[in-house]
Amino acid sequence: MKAVIVGCGRVGAGLADELDRAGWQVLIIDRVSAAFDRLPSTFRGTALRGDGTDEDTLRRAGAEGADLFLALTEGDNRNIMSAQLGIEALGARSTMAKCNDPVRAEAYAHLGIATICRTNLMTTAILEHLGQAAPAHAGIYAPAQHHAHTGGDAHVIAGQVVGIRPAGAAGITTTTEA
User: Fold this and answer.
1) 68: pLDDT confidence band, cut at 50, 70 and 90?
2) CA dihedral in degrees (27, 156, 73, 57; nearest 10)?
3) Whole domain around residue 169: which residue ranges?
4) Count of domains observed in the chain
5) Do the beta carbons of residue 39 and residue 13 sit within 8 Å?
6) Beta strands 140-141; 114-116: pairing state
7) Residue 151 pLDDT class (50, 70, 90 cuts)
8) I want to staple 68 with a disulfide (CB 3.0 to 4.6 A). Which of 3, 33, 93, 162 is the partner?
9) Treating both helix axes as pointing N-terminal to C-terminal, what angle do 102-110 and 76-88 enclose, rounded to 10 degrees?
10) How much is the pLDDT for 134?
11) Sequence-distant (≥ 6) Cβ neighbours of residue 165 within 8 angstroms
12) pLDDT confidence bin for 175, thresholds 50/70/90
């Protein structure tokens, strides 16, 4: 299985490590080289400094035909642009974009891009911890329709990773994309 992760923050690095341990072929991209310091020394995947919203960068990195494409930067717009490239240009089978803005998260899901909204997830978790009733808003929005794409036979589904178990180790491969 092949995973592409755009954004090597704590969530991106953690998912890259877990997927790598589970035997996935992992490519993680970030605009800042220092972000890769979050990856463990056992990471066997590829860490690439580059722009995850640039189609040429993603193609040169080998992001085409990914089983899973996650856009997890701190910018909602970058995440949507990257996820849209994953779907439309790169033929990813499962794509999800992180959106901090609940309105955007829901809107993009209606346009066919699965989203995860940290704001809604945290609000719900805190209210539940306090014993309060949680609002009915979602934290993960499955796409309401298939997103149009230009290549392959990919379609958008809500990205889910389940049953990950550690499986092995090696060293970090870091490359730089200008």
Assistant:
1) very high
2) 50
3) 2-176
4) 1
5) yes
6) antiparallel
7) very low
8) 3
9) 20
10) 83
11) 21, 22
12) very low
What's the rounded mean pLDDT across residues 4-18?
A: 98
In this structure, what token pair is assigned to residue 178? 């200008």
| CATH code, 24 | 3.40.50.720
* Residue labelled with tokens 């994953």: 86
Give the whole-angstrom CA distance, residue 35 versus residue 16.
12
Give me 123's structure tokens: 């609000």
What six digits make up the tokens of 106? 């829901």
Residue with tokens 């642009």: 81
Higher pLDDT, 134 or 58: 58
